[in-house]
């Protein structure tokens, strides 16, 4: 058994030939998703992956978890209606301090601001039973470049706010830009996160990994079906499954 955790950001319809950094064309995304399923990939909830890592249940041989970072409004507006129709579960990593607001992560003035899911949209999706949420910091800062109270706010306060607002446990954390350090990982553990995710491009093949440094594969605008599926098709493709963890 193995599992690839994919991470997406913005998925919207684009005109022919149009490209935007951090954005995948909706039709391309759906086409690639259909091909992965034809190749036998089965999308499972994050909670099933968690249970497998704990040795509590089995998962399909070719499993995948689909995650979305930043909790952008495009998830509800464009992607989720299709995923709901196909009963494909997802995990949304929410920036706690940007719910229902706009942000401008890019340093290029020509890139428009991005709108984030509001409370109504998030609760609607949670109520379907197909969506789990995790934390993605409070303001989406690079955890490896802040410390002290600022870092604690990003890690601890984000979790507390999301749990209070949605009335669910939030045991999952995605490090912004995938960056972490020993200090960050320890704070995540102290805050009660049980799984935390980087952006190392590897698949997970066993539960003998560091639960607070789990790899993910970015589903980027330049991804092809082969790039997304190669973790299942090529036996020697890099995998995470031989690192013991202090639990």
Write up this protein:
The chain has 247 residues and is an alpha/beta fold. It has one domain (2-240): Alpha-Beta Barrel (TIM Barrel). Helix content is 32%, strand content 20%. It has seven helices and 14 strands. It has helices at residues 26-38, 46-53, 74-85, 119-126, 148-166, 182-191, 225-233; strands at residues 2-8, 10-12, 23-25, 42-43, 62-69, 90-94, 102-103, 114-115, 131-135, 172-174, 195-197, 203-204, 217-218, 239-240. Strands 1, 4, 5, 6, 9 and 13 form a six-stranded parallel β-sheet that branches. Strands 2-3 form a two-stranded parallel sheet. Strand 10, helix 6 (182-191) and strand 11 (195-197) form a beta-alpha-beta unit. The longest helix has 19 residues, at 148-166. It is globular. It starts with a strand and ends in a 7-residue tail after the last strand. The relative contact order is 0.17. Residues 242-247 have low confidence and may be disordered.
**Domains (count):** 1
Query: What fraction of the residues are assigned to beta strands by DSSP?
Result: 15-25%
Distance between the termini: 22 Å
String of helices and strands: EEEHEHEHEEEHEHEHEEEHE
CATH topology: TIM Barrel
Any idea of the CATH class?
A: Alpha Beta
Shape by Cα distribution = globular
**DSSP strand tally:** 14
- The name of the CATH architecture is Alpha-Beta Barrel
Report the radius of gyration as a whole number of Å. 17 Å
Q: Which bin fits the share of residues in helices?
A: 25-40%
Largest beta-sheet details:
6 strands, parallel
| Mean pLDDT score | 92
| Contiguous runs where pLDDT drops below 50 for at least 5 residues | 242-247
CATH superfamily: Glycoside hydrolase/deacetylase
Count, helices: 7
Judged by helices, strands and strand pairing, the structural class is: alpha/beta
């Amino acid at each position: 058994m193995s599992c690839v955790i994919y991470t997406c950001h913005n998925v919207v319809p684009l005109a022919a030939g149009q490209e935007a950094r951090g954005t995948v064309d909706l039709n391309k995304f759906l086409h690639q998703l259909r091909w992965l399923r034809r190749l036998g990939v089965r999308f499972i909830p994050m909670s099933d992956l968690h249970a497998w890592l704990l040795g509590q249940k089995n998962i399909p041989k070719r499993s995948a978890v689909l995650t979305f970072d930043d909790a952008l409004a495009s998830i509800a507006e464009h992607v989720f209606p299709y995923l709901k129709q196909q009963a494909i579960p997802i995990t949304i990593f929410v920036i706690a301090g940007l719910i229902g607001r706009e942000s401008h992560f890019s340093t290029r003035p020509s890139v428009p601001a991005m709108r984030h899911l509001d409370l109504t949209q998030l609760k609607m999706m949670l109520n379907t039973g197909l969506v789990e949420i995790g934390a993605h910091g409070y303001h989406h800062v690079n955890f490896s470049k802040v410390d002290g109270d600022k870092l604690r706010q990003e890690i601890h306060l984000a979790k507390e706010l999301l749990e209070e607002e949605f009335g669910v446990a939030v045991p999952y954390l995605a490090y912004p830009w995938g960056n972490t350090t020993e200090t960050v990982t320890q704070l995540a553990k102290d805050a009660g996160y049980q799984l935390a995710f980087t952006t190392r491009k590897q698949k997970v093949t066993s539960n003998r990994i560091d639960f607070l440094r789990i790899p993910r594969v970015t589903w980027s605008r330049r991804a092809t079906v082969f790039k997304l599926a190669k973790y299942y098709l090529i036996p020697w493709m890099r995998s995470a499954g031989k690192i013991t963890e202090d639990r």
